[in-house]
Write a structure and sequence with these properties.
256 residues; four-stranded mixed sheet; two-stranded antiparallel sheet; globular
Length: 256
Amino acid sequence: MGMDEVALAQHIEAVRAEGRHTSWDYHSRASAAHRYVAMTVPKVACTTIKMALQTWEGCGPEPSRWGDVHAGWAGPTLLAYPTAQIVEMLRSPDCLRFSFVRNPYSRLVSAWKSKLAWDDPQYGPLRASIREACGYPVVDGQRAGPIAFRDAAECLLGNPAAFDDHWMPQVDLLIADVIDYRIVGRFERFGQDFHAILGRLHAPAEVVDIASQVYNPTPPMALAAVYDSPLARRVYDHYIADFETFGYHENSWRSG
């Protein structure tokens, strides 16, 4: 990578001081003992990855409380370690740094289904703004109705300020300009890839078993049912760095 160890340490200290980059904290899972750094990406099997790794580290929640893997106190994250130790884990050839990515078309659909297509309280204001922008009918004094995928996509792409990490480009979440990943697996073959990673790390059977579970699924949907050529083009243009970096085809919405 471009940064030497001194520059990397300075960068990490700046991240600590700023305190706003969720990839270094919320999305990362790291273990000095088991020699890995994992960067999770929302809507790319992130719950399963965190459940497996946190169980291995002795801080995994009960299966019925799988949502706790995303709590602020869950970990261990990269920033749980001293800066010098983080530098060592990010540069050492014997520390396995890995992540998973997903077709941007299907990731955006999954984020819509998970956060906007039902009444998730956290996303109430965003749903209200989409209904207002798209002229949804007024019922009992307020805009109402299920959020259509097209409306969600058009509003999000037209207003990047409304973005959160569920629709942020994956290249930005992975901070690949700083982290030299040894493996970037595909969501589309997640079971195979994650089991291979855990085998390489010599994870115990209990952890491997958890890696086979799906804790926060969204029902599958044919991409061609929600995309047409103009909408797909808008999504492609917005996420072009993801498509090009991770090798997903511009027309993959037609067959996904």
